[in-house]
Amino acid sequence: MKINKLITKLFAVAAAIAIIFSASFHTPGHASAETNSVPEELTKTYFGEPEKLLTPLNSTVSIFNGTVGKEDGKNVMFTTTRGTPAKLNVVDLDTNKLLRVIDLTNSENTWAHEVTVDGDLYIATSGGGAKLWKYSPVTKQASVVTTFAGQSDPFSITSDPDGNVYVGTYPSGKVFQYNPDANKVTDFGQMNPEITQEHIRSLAYIDGNIYAGTGHSKIVKYNIATGEKTEIAASLNEPGHVYDMNRVDNRYLFIRYELSSNGYIYDTVTEEWLDVVIPKVRGLHVEEESLNGNVYYMDLGGNALKYINLETLEIHDSGMKYGSGFRGVDWVEFDDPALPGKSLVTVNFSGSIYIFNIETKKVVERPSVVRGTAATMARVEAGPDGNLYMSGVQTSRGAIYDPGDGSTRSFALGQGDSMATLGDKVLVGVYPEGKIVEYDTTKEASASNPRDLFVLGDNQNRIIDIHAADGKAFIGSVPFYGELGGALTIYDPAAEGEKYKVYRNVVQDHSVVSLTYKDGLVYGSTTINGGLGIDPTAQEAKVFVWDVENEQKLKETTVEIPGLNNPHTIGELSFGPDGLLWGAADNMIFALNPETLEVVKSKKIYPDGVLFYSPWQPIDLKWSNGMLFANFDENLTMIHPETLVSKLVTNSAHHFTFGEDGNIYYILGSNRTYLNKIEVTSYEGLHSLIGNYQNSGVLGHPLAVQLTNALNQTEDHLLKGNKEQAIKHMGNFVKHLNNPDMAQYISDTAKNVFNTKAEKMISILSSEGEPPTEALPVVNPSFEEPVVSGQLAGWRSMFAVTDNNYYEISNQQSLSGSHSLKIVDKVRNGSVALMSDEITIQPGQEYTMSANVFVEEGEGSILLRYFDENHRQVSEHPYHFKVMLGQWEEVQAKGIAPENAKYARVIAYTTSFQIGTVYYDYISLEKKIK
Predict the structure, then answer these.
(1) Which of 326, 582, 713, 874 is deepest in the core (most CB within 10 A)?
(2) Is the dihedral of CA 748, 751, 757, 762 positive or negative?
(3) Does residue 396 contact residue 58 with C-beta atoms inside 8 Å?
């Protein structure tokens, strides 16, 4: 009886959703039936299972630092490639052979290697939090020795003669000491406590003092014994990062300021700056020991290796050149007559090792042997040629993926934080230069493709958004570190003379994160945040309107939405098919009247407090077949624009786009090296594909007419309730598609796409779309049985309840029957969990736990747990959800039962890290029938 009730109710809910969605999916010219009689097959969008395609930026090498050490008596280079995970490479410097590669698990990158007095290597890594690793050249093993709570990036490292290691971090601007003998960490605190977001970008130890180079121009001398801090760089009057700092001869500090590239030398004995300013210093390091009183450094002018004498302070050219900066540099003596005496050794971004022999004045390049890794992706966008274009994070390569044949190729590209199509060109906003790069899709990648177009300038360095329309590109940006005031930039390739103009502070002290365009007006949205290292002065993000022709701001306003209080960031903005200006902020979706900027409609999609964004991160919006797709903190969500009913598509999409084939392609949030795909099938989508492929020239008119007629016939029969005839006409669609006489009118790629989607539609119409399953008995699945003597039939509580963490049977919300399980968790140091009675299962089978959940606030979890014949746990499969706020959603946890499993239990719970008020109804367990 219980199941019959549920089926009846679920059928009603499904029918209601079908009616709600029918307005956008109904085909023009075929509206003879009443709206509430439109079959679900015509109105629903079907999403396939997520499919991992490939790692497009595969085997890339991105190196930020390295250092020389000893291993088994050999000179070796220790260096780490960026990726997921980062990989430590150990290279024999004499033979240029790769000795070993070690995964630094749950880490992505490092700027900081240090070999201590005892020969051990320490690596400070970011990605998954700031960590300090130790690698032993004796055991050949690497392990995490400590983590730095609350810190994301440990940018700098140094050590002292006792083997203690010091690490400088971001965002708190702290310095930590790690004592390996005692395995103890000491927090020296913030070096520049006046600044809430601070980098310790460079670090040196000399004679009991730590010298910390900050992101706000200061060099702080910290006395380890007394804790006294002294600022030593005020007299230099230099702004910006103290990007580089190295101790030399255990007495001097050689430092470089990022903005000016000026170098200075500080004598720690006399506590004076030497009377010299070294111009055009190129980072990132100099050697720690001078040679004959000379300190060698890279010069920006002509890529020259120069040196300065510490006594005379005269600067000389060594006669050697190198086209980069030193990513760590050390003296090495080789057993090679071609390399007499001492040589400087460094590693470049791509892993090649360079040797600078001082006596012969020769530069020797050893080709890269380090092992690359799949690079983290930043953006994926569909190009004008049907290919997908991807950029990476802190890499030198981008990738092009052809969905038709699955091929991929790479091209030279820095970190692309934004992309857009302008005609046949793909424009990319590259960090940190604030540069616009253009890739011509009609040409092959080469040394001149892509090409640099321009650098924004005006202190802008993060390009957050590019929107192309009306032959122009509209660009939104964030300023440099420590500054407020982003910009709107307009690029017009057809303009005579100056091609672009930068309008800074369109909204005073705000950054511009999203732009769209209509009828000569740019509509933009902002964030109150500026570059890192500065607190905002504004309280609330805004929306503005800019007149392109007259070069002036027409309007600026806040967005007044109940439940949206002082949003720090608003965006993305996008015009919908309804003519409204749609936008998103925090957990809200809204639509504005573009003339008045007044709110027409809005809805809170996710509960408060469960979504997290970076300082400038907008919520990506895209339209497909009349539906709005919004990516809330990697929760890709489909929203009906009329009713605002929403559906979670996937909860792990870092960034997404729609391919020419109508499918969703996205960067997998849980591992951003992977490009994923979700097959999207809908009746309306097939109609749209016909039009899109006709417009792009890959589908000819004769075949397009046949395919359209077959779809229309399918619809007519579905509206009449004749499913068999509808299936027959979808079969005709496939026959027309594969008719040899029609081959000249369609490309192979388009044919494959249509075949896949048409077969899926036939499968859906034939009710064969899902594999058969067998339901297992769950006692009291809908919580309708009465509580007797404090006992809930079929379930037991795993933890004691309190006033802050409890459960109850509630009639406030229900999907099946009149009751549901309500879990209330108000604090993060407790958990509420209801576990079912044991259910007998078969090992080796795949089981799926399903639960219908209604989130009033916060978030929750479900868990499928397996036990052996002795009732001991053998495995578990959790699923933590952030579902749509205020509507019932189905969530699932799946897993194959281990060979020693005999029982299963299903669990509704909140973790000790979650808070929320969540209702659970009709919990089931099903076995997939093989």
Answers:
(1) 326
(2) negative
(3) no
Q: Report how far Cα 812 is from the mean position of its chain's Cα atoms.
A: 38
Domain limits, the chain? 2-48+684-765, 64-347, 773-928
Q: Checking phi first, is residue 497 left (phi over 0); if not, alpha (psi -120 to 50) or beta? A: left
At 235 the three-state DSSP class reads helix
Is 0.85 surpassed by the pTM of this model?
Answer: no
> How many angstroms separate the CA atoms of 29 and 263, rounded?
73
* Locus of tokens 């400038």: 616
Dist. CA 94–CA 330, nearest whole Å: 15
Give Cα 142 distance to the centre of its chain.
Answer: 27
Q: Which residues of 746-758 are buried (b: 16+ CB within 10 A; e: fewer)?
A: bbebbbbbbeebb
Cβ atoms of 116 and 163 within 8 Å: the answer is: yes
Give 471: exposed, middle or buried? Use CB within 10 Å, 0-12, 13-18, 19+.
Answer: exposed
> Which residues are bridge partners to 925 per DSSP?
776, 849
Neighbouring-strand partners of residue 183: none
Report residue 250 as tokens. 């255990």
- Sequence-separated (6 or more) residues with CB below 8 Å from residue 524: 474, 476, 488, 506, 512, 514, 515, 516, 543, 544, 545, 546, 573
Element (H, E) at 680: strand 680-681
Question: How far is 387 from 77, CA to CA, in rounded Å?
Answer: 39
Measure the CA–CA gap between 477 and 858, rounded to whole angstroms: 33
Look at residue 881 in the predicted model and tell me its pLDDT: 86
Binning the chain into helix, strand and coil, the percentages to the nearest 5 are: 10, 45, 40
CB 701 within 8 A of CB 693: no
Sequence-distant (6+) residues with CB within 8 A of 777 are: 839
The model's pLDDT over 895-928, given as tens digits with 9 standing for 90+, comes to: 999 999 999 999 999 998 888 999 999 999 999 7
Give how far the C-alpha of residue 660 lies from the chain's centroid of Cα atoms, to the nearest Å.
23
Contact call for residues 55 and 374 (beta carbons, < 8 A): yes
Hey, which bits of 171-207 come out as E strands? 174-179, 184-190, 200-206
CATH topology match: 64-347 vs 773-928: no
- Tokens 């230069």 label which residue? 433
Pair 373, 81: CB distance under 8 Å? yes
* Amino acid in the structure at residue 82: R
Q: Identify the CA nearest to 285 among candidates 295, 270, 273, 272.
A: 295
3-state class of 861 per DSSP?
Answer: strand
Cis peptide before 689 (omega within 30 of 0): no
Query: How far apart are alpha carbons 343 and 332 in whole angstroms?
Result: 5
CB count, 10 Å around CB of 930? 8
Return the CATH number of the domain spanning residue range 773-928: 2.60.120.260
76 within 8 A of 91, measured Cβ to Cβ: yes
CA distance 265 to 236: 11
> What Cα–Cα distance (Å) separates residue 574 from each residue in 522, 579, 623, 803?
11, 10, 9, 45
Q: How far is 877 from 19, CA to CA, in rounded Å?
A: 35
Task: Could you please state the CATH topology (level 3) that the domain comprising 64-347 is classified under.
Answer: Neuraminidase (2.120.10)
Residues whose CB falls within 8 Å of the CB of residue 9, separated by 6 or more in sequence, listed in order: 815, 816
CB of 239 within 8 A of CB of 211? Answer: no
635-651 pLDDT tens trace: 999 999 999 989 899 98
Task: State how far the alpha carbon of 700 is from the alpha carbons of 694, 710, 751, in Å.
Answer: 6, 16, 12
Burial of 247 (0-12, 13-18, 19+ CB in 10 A): buried
H/E segment holding residue 566: none
Q: What is the pLDDT of residues 131-169, one digit of tens each?
A: 999 999 999 999 999 999 999 999 999 999 999 999 999
Tokens 């600044």 belong to residue: 195
Three-state DSSP state, 692: helix
